Every structure is written in structure tokens, then in C-alpha cells.
Amino acid sequence: MARCIFRWEARTLLSLRPSSSQANVPFLWPFKRVFYGWGIVSVSMLVTFAHAPMYGPMLAIFVKPIGDDLGWSRTTIALAFTIGSFSGSMLSGLVGGLFDRYGGRGIIALSGMVVAGAMLGLAVMTDPWHFWALIGVGRGVAIAGINLGTSVMIAKWFIRMRGRAMAIGGSGVRIGQAALPFLAHAIIVTQGWRSAYVVLAVLTALLITIPALVYMRRKPEDLGLLPDGDDPNADPNDARMEGRRQLRLEEAWTLKEAIREPSLWLIVQVMAAGAFALTAVNLHLTASFQDRGISAVLAVTVTAIYTGVSAVSMIVWGFAIERIHARHLTMVVSLIYIVSMVVMLQADTFPVALAFVLMFGVATGGWTVLHNVLIADYFGRHSVGAIRGFTMPFMGIINPLGPLLAGWLRDTQGDYNMAFIIFIGVFVLMFVSMLLAVPPRRKVTPETA
């Protein structure tokens, strides 16, 4: 079956006209001579920026204000994050295949409206169950509808430049996590946390729904283009093409074939372990610094530095992925995480906290790109949405427990130290699992010039 799909894709790609025409790109795309895949990347960057309020570093800004105002424990607040992560994983299993079939245009646009509505609800909530339901819906839709959707779309549009494209497109969420905390904190201090959610809701609706409807498209073949903007008719001896590889075809694994490979299940374990620890640290990061005596302003600043470093480092990791296999880079990321968590155990002053976020930010920048390209790099782009969607429910059983565990340990022991020690062990498990995840043997040799 895989050979048939590969041959079908090859014939389809080779029958298309050169990408330089770009006659079918949206008329509002102003850069007509630029490969439209970069339009997909640009929109992905914008919409992931706007959905950042549903991720840990942004929610961390609200943990203490909401807890102090409503008298809620850290466990109560973390439970909402856990519900959101779980619902996102389950929902991803339902919509993953839809991205392969229909693209992300409608799903991403609708998701933006749902996330904005959830934040408007947060602005008027009064009871814990309101918080659990609203974060459950908002974060769940952000994960399944926006984060998964944009990463699948980028994987469809790029093969040989997938690393840099995924890094640029995915950097939006990290830029949002770096910039939006200052906006949120300023509004919280002057107007209260409820007003902050109203402002973020408006930004989300405007920056996700409209761009997605106007610019998002399923795959290059739908517009008569090729992945990476390649031209199948280009003369390899043309001096203008010097240093540029021509059309690259990759293996096309089906979901049925992928689930038989041990490497897929090891990747699931890697991604579950990474998310288990990372989401917990993201959610509790700012509050943990404040608990150790670091002022609120410095705690927010350190959190913003962390996400800023993550965003910048993503670009470097993106280019590295195009030259070094994602498996090896994931092991490097795991080691950096281990060292940074050891530093975190001593982070009770601003300089030590800064050292931690610099290391943790570099590792998170790599992880943000790597976890989005692992499936595509191992099994190709043909069924990447279906395969990723299939894996998400399995990870959803484990992922959400990290933030809840950290919150419970803090409430019962008075600090996060035991949670951070556990996360060191989790990152060790991530390293070992990736070490064992040998890529499956290639059934078809891609054509690469």
C-alpha cells in the first residue's frame, strides 16, 4: 500500500506545473513571486501567537491573582490545566484525519472563535467548575484545532525545508508567551485579571479567525504547486539552481502501517514524557519563583525571558533539524532539560532563576520544533494528521497529570522541589526512549537531487 501511495504522489507531483506560476494563491497574498508555503508559515505564526493565552507560561501569570482573589488552591487551578490538556489530546484524535482530508482553514478559524469565547467566560467566572470547564474547552480546542492544525499544514507544504518552516511557524506561540505576559500583567495590576481576559479574548478572535479564513490552504498540490516551492522541470545543470536540491519525494506511510512500528510507540512515550513535565513547569513557573521570594515583576520578567529565548532558539533548531536527524536532536534536548531542572532546584535568586530559564528556554525551543516534526520525519506527510491524531489520546492519559501532580505536591509539601525531582527522572526516560526509537527501515528510496 505504501508503495502505491508513494508512486501516486510521485506521479501527481511530477504532473504539476512549476511553482513559479502560483496562479491559484489567494489574491490577498501580496508576495506573488514568493512560494505560498511561506504564507502558510506566516499565518501559522500569527495564529499560534494569538492562542498563547491557553498555554502554561501565560496561564502562570494568572495563577496567583486568581488564587488570591477567589481563594483557590494551586491544585484547584492546576486541575483546569489538566482537564484542558486531556480534552486537547482526545479532541486531536477526532480531528487529526480531518486536516489530511479537508485542511485547516475552517477548523482553525472556528477554533479561534471558541478560544476567544472561553476567555470571555473566564472574565466572569465565579466557581471552580466554571474555570475547569472554560479552560477545558479553550485549551483543548487550542491544542487540537490550532496547534495540531498549523503543524500539520506546515508539514504538508514542506519536506526538505520542513525544519526551518516549522520553527518559524511554531515560534508564534513562544513569541506570544514572551510578549503577552507583560500586557496581561499590566492590565492585571491596573484593572484586574478579569479585564485582562477580555482584552486577550478580543486579540484572539481578530488574529486567528480572519487570517485563517483568508490564507490557510490544505497542501501545495491543491494550488498547482510543489512542496518547498520546487520545480520538477528545472534543469539540474542550471547555474541558478546551484546549491539547491530539486524535488524530494518522501515515504508515504499509512496510519495502519505506522502503528505496527515500535518506533511510533516509543515516540508516543517520548512526547508524553516531555509534555508531562514541560506543561507542569510552564504552568507553575512564575508562581514557584514568587514562592521562593522573587518579586512578581521579576518572576514575570524571567518567564518572559524564558519564552523569548525559546522563540529565538527555535530558528537555530529548525535549521539543525534539516541536517541532523530529529532523533539525535531530541536526545540533546533531553539532556539540556535534565541539567536545567537540577539548576531549578536552586533557583531562589534572580541570577539562578535567569540561568535556569536560559537553559530551559533553549531546550524548549528545540522541543517545540521537534515534537511537531518527529512523526512527519519518521513516516512522511501523507497521513501525518491521522497518525498524530491517533497518538494524541494515548499521550492524553499521561500528559495532563504533570501540572496536577506539581500543584498537589506544592499544596501538601509547601514547595515544588519534589515535583522538579520527579521531572528530572521523566526527562531521563525521554532520553532513553528516544535512544531506542530507531527509525523504521525505508521501504522506498526517495528521489533526491
- For the record, the count of structural domains works out to 1
Radius of gyration: 22 Å
Instruction: Please summarize the sheet with the most strands.
Output: none
Strand content: under 5%
Which CATH architecture would you pick? Up-down Bundle
Work out the helicity level: over 70%
Description:
This protein has one domain (36-218, 252-436): Growth Hormone, Chain: A, CATH 1.20.1250. It is 73% helix and 0% strand. It is built from 16 helices and no strands. It has helices spanning 2-14, 37-50, 56-70, 74-102, 105-122, 128-157, 162-190, 193-215, 255-258, 262-291, 296-321, 326-344, 350-379, 384-398, 401-413, 417-436. α3 packs across α10.
Provide the fold topology:
Blueprint (H helix, E strand, L loop, with lengths): L1 H13 L22 H14 L5 H15 L3 H29 L2 H18 L5 H30 L4 H29 L2 H23 L39 H4 L3 H30 L4 H26 L4 H19 L5 H30 L4 H15 L2 H13 L3 H20 L13
Précis, in short:
With 449 residues, the chain is mainly alpha-helical. Helices cover 73% and strands 0% of the residues. It has one domain: Up-down Bundle (Growth Hormone, Chain: A).
